[in-house]
Design brief:
The chain has helices at residues 15-31, 53-56, 63-69, 151-158, 181-197, 247-255, 258-261, 264-278, and strands at 2-7, 36-38, 76-84, 90-98, 101-107, 132-133, 138-143, 163-168, 175-176, 179-180, 200-205, 207-210, 213-216, 220-222, 228-231, 238-243. It is an alpha/beta fold. The chain has a single domain, classed as Carbon-nitrogen hydrolase (Nitrilase/N-carbamoyl-D-aminoacid amidohydrolase, 4-Layer Sandwich), CATH 3.60.110.10. A hairpin with a 5-residue loop joins β3 and β4 (90-98). It is globular.
Length: 281
Amino acid sequence: MKVGLAQIRPHLGNVAKNIEIHKQIMKQAKEEGVELLIFPELSLMGYNLLDLTYDVACTVDSEEVQEIVSESKGIDIAFGIVERSPDHILYNSAIYASYGSIQSVHRKVYLPTYGMFDEARYFGRGEKIRAFDTKFGRVGMLVCEDMWHPSAPYLLAQDRAELLIVLANSPARGVHAKGLGTQDSWDLILTSQAQFYGMCIACTQRVGTEDGITFFGNSTAVDPFGDTLVQGPLFEESLVTFDLDLDMVRQARFTTPILRDENTDLVVRELTRIQQHRRGE
């Protein structure tokens, strides 16, 4: 399968403009034979929305979302939105669309609210981490900070995900002689988790600047042996494409059978004990 990482520069709060950007990239991707196209976190709205968050929020069946979903008849698409639920809670959500309909929605579970981040002020927390079946194989989705919590990729690996899609908006921080600290951290997280669980990981990062926050790009794909398949440029818009063979997952999980040997009963038992202890039970 051919995969595309849409390393774009969303316009903050301008949903109409961002829809056009999505359509342009989808058209280009189809022309290049891409079968699965992955956009960054909150790709339809922009990231640092603050008080605009409620104004740009939309339901998954809204005209704005369906305008993108309808384009998935010839290409599978993963993109990010501010989702407004029926009870008017807002979520930082990733949508996976195929055959012109939504196949899965992942609501970001871990909302960074420290340092420069303030997501818990605006978003509700997702309560599920689950893989789902696609025409390519079994897939899981995470949104940015989710990936920094080892429990999230662990759960998707246990749910037999072969491909992990990560939609991210990571600011450039920690400049040093060899590059960016955030870039180094993401490289380590992606390669280690792919190798631990024998799954492919495709992570799309955005570029551009919002209110002094610069996003660095460098979208990355890693094979299940932990080897980097492709990386996008720093700070530049790009459609990064690569060929992915999910048969490598079977090879990796046979060669290094970590999932086979994992004792989930022990994990559940010990986590239950730890929770009870913390609650004073």
